[in-house]
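pls ignore typos typing on phone
4-nitrophenyl beta-D-glucopyranoside + seq
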Amino acid sequence: MKNFLWGVATASYQIEGGVREGGRGASVWDAFCRIPGRVHGTDNGDVACDSFHRYAEDVKMLKLLGVDAYRFSIAWPRIQPTGRGPANPEGIAYYNALIDLLLANGITPFVTLYHWDLPLDLELAHDGWRNRELVDDFAAYARICFDAFGDRVRHWITFNEPWCTSVLGYGLGAFPPGRTDPDEPYRVGHHLLLAHAAAVRCFREGGYPGVIGITNNCDWREPLTDSPADRDAAERAVQFFYGWFTDPVVRGDYPELMRERLGDRLPRFTPEEQAGLKGSVDFLGLNHYSTLYASAEEPAGAGDIGPNGNGGMSDDQQVFLSVDPSWEQTDLQWNVVPWGFRKLLNWIARRYPGLPIYVTENGCAVAEPDAVTALDDEPRCRFLRSYTDALRAAVREDALDIRGYFCWSLMDNFEWAHGYTKRFGLLRVSPDQLERVPKRSFYVYQQLIKEAKND
Ligand code: PNW
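k done
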């Protein structure tokens, strides 16, 4: 595959540590980790993979892996410790050093501006994303980043997975600020979309070189049967998932069927806001991890599908989700269904024609109880082969405009509410052993990249 970027992804809070260094302010995740019962054990991101000090080791491993690109995120509280006010020079210096080292090694930086580590002050003193004022705060923060790094960074992502911030943070309470409300996810999502548009406007009006987009997550929903009702249910589920945050940035408004179902519970954009949102991406980012069946009625004998099912928004969608018991599952009970990935890529390309797609995350959690199991991570090797095969079929047979693929993740890291118990890395890193050690999947991915380049 030509003109295709192979990469790996990480996120600031999950790898950096150094939370009280370099003038960094506290983030909502620092606080959330201290609330008993919210995160596994007493796990937190205080040290994580220590990338604040060991970023040169990360780059060395990226080089060895042979990737074209590295997707990482900037911690807002390193740049603006309270989320407002002037830039913190030490924060800028850290990312300058990382970016320069990447470029010196021929690796293209893909920078995510927001991967969930909101400055804590904005939450405590300003109600976080429930407050529309954060739209301007985010745009001001984005401008600082464009000014500081825009001479070298040519690929920008405003938000990582606004669906997770909205649904997990405000609907299910699994992420900060840990709220459970039926309507707040829609309000918060609305503000995130407006903040995206404000940042993109600033990027484009500022004449910075390069491209900007958003990363939305989506699982595939396969109709359980061929009935029109089940097909509609599956379509509805994908529109409520990917469409919620992608229709506005491409077409200027929410999917019609969301409006039909939610009425006034879904906030409205003014015509001016619609104009700002429409076409506010140069590419679409997709984070994809799993597939479920969708049906209009509860399937007979459907078991509990666990925490990644209807996600609290089921009443709004009227979709029932179920699994095929023959599907292999990862250590997070996410289903390994590579054909679902290919179908989703086709769905996206059909609904949003003309936009390049980057797969900004895909990967799997593997149970790795000891070092021997970890280094011989067979299930991850198979996962990567099967998912990159599906991707290559989508590019070559379905002729989709997909420009890159980023494996989640470069290394084991702080897996949010699961702490350090779930492992996604190509490199083994543990809280007591911060040295980066390649697993078998590291070499498999290295090989896959080489093969694909000769395609
Ligand atoms: C993504 N869900 O998170 C994030 O972008 C990463 O930071 C994270 O480590 C990775 O996937 C693996 O979890 C998600 O519940 C978290 O559907 C939860 C869900 C989806 C994605």
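The mean pLDDT is 96. The CA atoms of residues 276 and 359 lie 25 Å apart. more later
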